[in-house]
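Chapter summary example.
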Amino acid sequence: MPIFDLPLAELERYQPDLAEPTDFDEFWSLTLAEARAFDLALDVRPVDAGLPLVDVADVTFAGFGGHPIKAWLLRPAGSAESGEVLPAVVGYLGYGGGRGLPVEWLAWANAGYAHLVMDVRGQGSAWSVGGETPDPVGSAPASPGFMTRGITAPQEYFYRRVMTDAARAVDAVRALPGVDAARVAVAGGSQGGGLALAAAGLVGGLAAVLADVPFLCHYRRAVDVTDSMPYQEIVRYLAVHRDHEAAAFRTLAYHDGVSHARRATAPALFSVGLRDDTCPPSTVFAAYNNYGALAATRPETQIEVYPFNRHEGGQAFHQRRQMEWLSAVLGAR
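The structure predicted for these 333 residues follows.
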């Protein structure tokens, strides 16, 4: 894949005009208030995952609409019994994936963190197993996938529910014994990176944000410059529903990671692949360049650029960088 987006020097100063709704903050304030009116219903059940060095628990908490959301909790073996209070990482998943098996999520627990891996409602059959978290809410006709479910009405959009779940996952991890509520980070790649940005804008007091090749950012630019999925789901929908363009992009504006990033206050580490045709670099830099713009004091931000990589980004190299950075930010070591 050749470099198809703007040159790096232009990406570094890319500041697109945002069609941000005037009631963006009110929309999300009411959404979170509705979700938090339900009891968190936190349920934590230890499971034997065959991992003697890691304690694993099957977690359920109430997300959007009070719907039960599943998660895995992993932490160093014996840390809860010893009374140790750990920093935590709330992990969000890429598009189509489920929480999988505990053995897939060992890195953060082995680095000394409590790690909550949130299942994504309705997903879990594309690249990692899931299915423990159904989405009980239907939608009007949509193109295959998740991007256009409820796209003509902000209140009905699929990602309104998922972004609310992401915020409630932070509430859940902060309520766990043995977790330092003041040292909670959110992290994810692709869809998970977009959800980390949403959580960063919706939840106060986060300690750090790790947004790896984030999806769900600058939708208008994305559908104009890439013909890759999942953004092409929007194009396919609008190619059929030719009269829904204004309504669709109005809905997407309430769920744009760029707008959420503007409201973030925690330090952040991003990553981008300059040959990424799934999440085009300009959409990532739109969020990065706007990150913390509305904060009283703009937080520290860094971005790792992988010039020769596509949507895989830095993979293990970047995970190592994330661990070094997060340890320094949280004082975990």
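To summarize the output: The longest strand covers residues 179-189.
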